[in-house]
Amino acid sequence: MPIDLPNSPSNNQTYTFNDRVWVYNSTAGAWVSQGGAVAAVGAQGVQGAAGAQGAAGAQGSSAGFAKSFLTGL
Asked: Concatenated DSSP letters for 7-46?
């Protein structure tokens, strides 16, 4: 039997179904289950695709290299 939650609940309104209590949170706009067993964590999903390559950096200058190479610095 499906849960038949109220259509226009007020904040902190409770609803009980099959020994489980649901509380309406008006900030989240959702019913939140209170108590009961917590299910086990599922397996991790597969890794997503790699992102796009970023833009190339600015072209450097060889002036500093030539100076230090020629003067032995």
From this structure: SSPPTT-EEEETTEEEEEETTTTEEEEESSPPPPPPPPPP
pLDDT for 17-37, tens place per residue? 887 889 999 999 999 988 766
Per-residue confidence band for 67, with pLDDT thresholds at 50, 70 and 90: low
Burial readout 1-35 (b: 16 or more C-beta within 10 A, e: otherwise): eeeeeeeebeeeeeeeeeeeebebeeeeeebeeee
In this prediction the pTM is 0.45
Q: How far apart are CA 66 and CA 41, in angstroms?
A: 60
Encoded tokens for 3 = 């849960």
